[in-house]
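> forwarded from #structure-qc
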């Protein structure tokens, strides 16, 4: 397994290098000139624009600029953008065009909110979805099974952003059940206010995603329940609950882990609709705001962070295969 993990890590680093090159080329040699962010249109003379190009290092060869851009990931440095010098601690992700602060410090302040959304929402949709899937599989063909499948299809047919918006309008604005939605630090504001602010976003994320997990878990459980070792255990008189938890679920959960790893990485990169509707200042909202303001360092940092999380999630999922299912061997 060790050799497999090392090879996957090397491949993941290569993927991130390719992504970083693409991001660098897109945002620093694309249609938008970064220097214009520091040069007002009404006062942007050619001499001033050239001076900004020089201060930002845009007049240097492209390989030198890329190496300088990537050096921030291994050391601290001082960045001068538009005549403003900012100390950028390791890992330095650049300086925001809009806020003139370190991108790393700006994004790190939003990480706790994103982690809260991701862990809470993922826990609910995984437990709820797999649990409902098991119930439907055990009652295959019955009225309850058909009702579960119909309800999950109904939820899936509704766009997630519409579900988030309707829940906010109804439960927050009309009924007032969750008046203080948003992220509150459990260490500063207390755990009660933290849970009260995040409960509705967690529930809506869980319900929106649990329907898909329920159908996927149901299909996987039905397939596993027909295997020879499950029928043998049942013939030996093993209890149904023990068969489900110790034999069937362990094999059926393997394909679920694949989609869960990617979905969880997606939550960590920021849930834009949830953060926007419920006023949660997370990474998704930071990336959306940066894209709207053409804040190139902020956008490029968000893209690289998202790529890194997805690569790591894929590696972790592959390793978990061998832990969950002993039949899987990583070579």
């Amino acid at each position: 397994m060790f050799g497999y993990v090392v090879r996957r890590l090397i491949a993941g680093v290569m993927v991130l290098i390719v992504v970083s090159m693409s991001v660098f080329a897109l945002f620093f040699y694309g249609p938008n000139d970064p220097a214009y962010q520091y040069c007002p249109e009404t006062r942007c003379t050619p001499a001033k624009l050239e001076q900004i190009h020089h201060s930002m290092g845009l007049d240097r060869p492209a390989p030198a600029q890329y190496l300088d851009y990537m050096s921030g990931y291994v050391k601290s440095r001082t960045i001068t953008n538009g005549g403003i010098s900012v100390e950028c601690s390791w890992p330095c992700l650049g300086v925001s065009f809009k806020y003139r602060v370190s991108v790393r410090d700006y994004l790190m302040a939003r990480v706790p909110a994103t982690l809260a959304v991701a862990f809470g929402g993922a826990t609910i949709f995984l437990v709820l979805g797999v649990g409902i899937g098991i119930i439907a599989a055990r009652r295959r063909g019955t009225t309850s099974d058909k009702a579960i499948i119909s309800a999950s299809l109904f939820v899936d047919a509704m766009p997630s952003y519409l579900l988030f918006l309707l829940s906010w309008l109804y439960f927050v604005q009309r009924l007032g059940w969750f008046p203080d939605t948003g992220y509150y630090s459990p260490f500063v504001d207390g755990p009660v206010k933290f849970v009260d602010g995040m409960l509705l976003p967690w529930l809506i994320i869980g319900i929106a995603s649990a329907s898909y997990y329920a159908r996927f878990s149901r299909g996987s459980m039905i397939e596993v329940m027909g295997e020879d070792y499950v029928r043998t255990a049942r013939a030996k008189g093993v209890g149904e609950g023990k068969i489900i938890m110790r034999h069937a679920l362990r094999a059926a959960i393997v394909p679920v882990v694949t989609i869960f790893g990617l979905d969880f990485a997606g939550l960590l990169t920021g849930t834009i609709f949830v953060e926007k509707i419920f006023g949660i200042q997370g990474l998704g909202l930071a990336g959306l705001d940066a894209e709207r303001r053409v804040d190139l360092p902020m956008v490029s940092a968000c893209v690289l962070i998202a790529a890194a999380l997805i690569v790591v999630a894929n590696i972790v999922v592959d390793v978990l295969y061998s832990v969950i299912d002993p039949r899987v061997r990583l070579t």
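QC bot note: The domain at 111-281 is CATH 1.10.3720.10 (MetI-like fold). The first helix runs from residue 2 to 28.
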